[in-house]
Design goal:
Immunoglobulin-like; 2,3-Dihydroxybiphenyl 1,2-Dioxygenase, domain 1; about 35% strand; 14 strands; alpha/beta; 2 domains
Length: about 250
Amino acid sequence: MADPRLRQVCLVAPALAAPERALAAVLGAAPCHRDPHLARYGLENVIFRLGDRFIEIVAPIEDGTAAGRFLERSGGQGGYMAIFDCEDPERRAEDAEALGVPVVNRMRVDAYLGVQLHPKACRAAMIEFNRTDGGAALDGPYWPAGPDWQGAPQSEPPCRLEAVTLDSPTPGDLAAHWGRLLAIPVTDHHTADAGGVALRFQPGRKECLSALSLRAADPDTLLARAEAQGLTVDRGAFQLAGVRWHLARG
């Protein structure tokens, strides 16, 4: 396993139906999975597959949830969580705590362990480390995406997650912070490779996960679908669930 690998990005919406419908239409694919365990946290979710990576949208179904507080703080702008699979989430958590970033949640379900770090201490977005037994290979088990994710529909035309962009008034400082938390090298241009997906740190007014970059076989078709859904489209990108989705051919 490339350790750690960004496998999933979690976005938040005030309600699930509209962004789920829009993303399904843009991607030309049905959802991959829904997690019934999230009800205990006052949330519902949907997950879409992009090859061996995943996009999740969560929405609060009760008052007082962490996701609901995120929406209030952010004004609905920015991604909620960057989720990395790795060999040993507990060791990653210990290393993070040694850097002053506490653990706020541990989830053990079946063959899965997930450890979530404090979002304010992570800065820009919450970080989760997780492991699914037998999931060392990218086409192996990955519990958050369901037991049969390998057979789930993909986007049509095909596309894949290429990069995640994080904004900060001090991007070099944020890049160094995430580099330490993830224990991965960061370039002089404030980029890092997280197991096949690039992390890009750029100047911005506030710290947030601002954008996703996708490589698509036919980006024009995806952009036309986004426009048909009433999403804001400009300069090869569309806006959905608080982040900008950049599309490039490839």
